[in-house]
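Example record for the data management plan.
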Amino acid sequence: MPADISAPSTTRNPAPHPRLAVGVLAFCGVVVAVMQTIVVPLLPHIPRLTGATPAAASWLVTVTLLTGAVFTPVLGRVGDMYGKRRVLVASLLVLVLGSVLCAVSSHIGVLIAGRALQGAALAVAPLGISILRDELPPERVLSAVALMSSTLGIGAAIGLPVAALVVENFDWHTMFWVSGAIGALDILLVLRCVPESPVRTRGRFDAVGGLGLSAALVCLLLAVTQGAGWGWTSARTVGLLAAAVVVALAWGAYELRVPAPMVDLRLSARPAVLLTNVAALLIGFAFYANSLVTAQMVQEPKETGYGLGASLVVSGLCLLPGGVMMVALSPVSARISGKYGPKVSLALAGAVIAAGYVVRYFTSHSLWLIIAGATVVASGTALAYSALPALVMRGVPVGETGAANGLNTLMRSIGQACCSATVAAVLSGLTFRVAGRAAPTLHAYQLVFLIAAGAALAALLVTLCLPGGRGVTTGTVEGSAEAPATRAHAARPTPGPTAQEDRRARSGQ
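Corresponding structural encoding:
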């Protein structure tokens, strides 16, 4: 049964201008996304700077993936129950703490702990989307959510060149001090400009469900991210994959019996939600290949026959036009979704991403054509990331928005993890000797482009199977008891329910 929703109007503070809230939340999303990629240019230097092994250094990326995957759906659910702004501020506070840990130490263990805390802040994006849905008038929800969702890609595009500039010109701890300061500024802006959402989901927090989901995700993602190094048939990899399956089955059986589960599996199994999450996984895979291979490819030495020998900064700047396009296209995607439905936007995104990889397949020798292909892929990603939350909101009740968007973000992260493992396997498996070292062949990069294009086309096919419809702001599930009240909520210019509606919700009417 849908959870009851309450929102006492007597405790609601006057909201600031909506544009301020949208801008602040989008800025928070960009900062969090930058944190996920900011350490990538530093990885080759970590063994020299810290005395750690390359395997240990790789955990600076792996641990953020793990903690982000675990905390995103969990904090989304907590936000639905106890206050989205409250949980968002707590997530930003964790990010600041992680940044400070990384800034004050060169010990690999402390750095990994700090990066783990930074990864937990990935929940900021779905929490921001949920706040915008609750706070904005219906006519503004699509464009605001499109911008908020796109910040994940925008931040990734900005983070690489910014980090490269810092690594080449300043002490490497500087970028963590800066990130901590910006995170603290985010907290102040949120407290000043973003109102607390009045919408709450009743019930007790499903701690057992949260632990079960976390255990399954950790086993799965550890196997996926470390399988190449351990060996895909090694006892550790196979054991973790088997454990992930067993834990997931036990967790699913438990969730189906709990009155207020961590993840409503019955709701998640409905085509509108299930297919959207499958599409999110495939889009996450297709998008991430662009970020992974572009910088590495243009830095390959000219002796390879295809490499450009570009510097670290130049390689990072190759992704910057894509970030600009994501900012520019988020309102375009919102207009497409508003006129034709988010299903059309997502289908178009799959086609554009696939086309971008076709361009990349045939233009691997020219810097400007590489940038053009990467920008086309980023443009398709902007359309996709803007459409996915709209599709999620169309299929879930208002009280499930945070958890549902957290799960959708989780699926993108799993897609990115699978992409990282696939790219590593392809580039390390197809090599040749050049300038005294092993380098990937051009065919290896082209194979990555084909695989990513295939993932984008698969996302297109999945999208075409989605139910039709354009409604995205009500977030009702057709036929549910909650639908009438939710429709009334969405029709109001301000989202807070009246006292009469609150009494009805509390009495179960």
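Summary line stored alongside the record: Residues 106 and 457 are 43 Å apart (CA to CA).
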